Amino acid sequence: MASVPSPYQTHIPLPSLSDETPLKHEAHLSEVPVHIVTHASQLPPEFLHPSSERQLVIGFDCEGVDLCRHGTLCIMQLAFPDAIYLVDAIQGGEMLVKACKPALESSYITKVIHDCKRDSEALYFQFGIKLNNVMDTQIAFSLIEEQEGRLRSPDDYISFVSLLADPRYCGISYLEKEEVRVLLRQDPKFWTYRPLSELMVRAAADDVRFLLYIYHKMTAKLNQRTLWYLEVRGALYCRCFCVNNNDYADWPSLPPVPDSLMMDGNAPEEEILSVLDVPPGKMGCVIGRRGATILSIKESCNAEILIGGSKGPPDKVFIIGPVRQVRKAEAMLRGRMLDIY
Predict the structure, then answer these.
(1) Residue 205: enclosing H or E segment and its boundaries?
(2) Angle (nearest 5°) at CA 245 between 283 and 282
(3) What pTM was computed for the model?
(4) What are the start-end ranges of the E strands in 188-331?
(5) What is d(CA 277, CA 144) in angstroms, rounded to the nearest whole number?
(6) Are 315 and 304 in contact (CB under 8 A)?
(7) Reduced to 3 states, what is the DSSP secondary structure of residue 215?
(8) Quick check: helix, strand or coil at residue 267?
(9) Over the stretch 30-67, which tens digit does the pLDDT of each residue have?
(10) For residue range 59-83, what is the model confidence (pLDDT) as tens digits?
(11) Residue 127, Cα to own-chain centre: how many angstroms?
């Protein structure tokens, strides 16, 4: 652990699986230090050297400038039950981030994150890190809604702010998030400035300090089938924007279907990621006016459809879901590409 006392403190909620009431700050929060890390020696040894003998669950997030393959990763936040570590990629540089590579790629460390796609893309293209073994709370939320029979729009993705506000998970408001968003709109280089201001430290810590609490709340709700879906979809979402020339052969294998699910005669269908190249000038046909075409295909297929968009890759469509549904979505999208304006 870091040997120098930290001047920064924050509060981490203590897991309370039986408590269904909204999070009460005074009763359920434990004060922990926030460490700014500029050298790998300041990180916990059990994180730097993953081991099957001491498996970890940590909260994880990244901050940066236009975070994607072309942007700049500035901070990685790691939330442990007893401390938060802000890994400063600006001052620590590539050497510090790559010291975290074994942990970020390890199957012995579960990384709890909300919407892993762009963070994974930045780590892969900027540092050669293949983010692995994530528990994505955005995916988990959708699976829980589906498991409990609640209908949702195919285009309905819960934000982190909305997830925190949900009384089933935290039931708190995160007003400071909007303050930081305003600052980012005014100055996109906000996360590059050093030394880190008190606001920057507080905002970075806030993005991860609730994740372990939410993890315990969500995993208590998920059954074995949806836990497998969560694991597989997390792996697919991590790699979806990380397009390479070898069909992801250098990435870890996808989690197999557990034997217990195979034995009941109702085994879940294999889930895959498909990447479609869109010919020049055809993306408008694929998306449709205000996204109407994509939405209609999502409604017809039990598959997720993602567009690279302005952050890229701009000429590709990513489809994630059961094999038959992905193939169906592919056929519909290819049909749209043949349409004439």
Answers:
(1) helix 198-206
(2) 10
(3) 0.93
(4) 271-277, 304-307, 316-322
(5) 32
(6) no
(7) helix
(8) coil
(9) 999 999 999 999 999 999 999 999 999 999 999 999 99
(10) 999 999 999 999 999 999 999 999 9
(11) 17
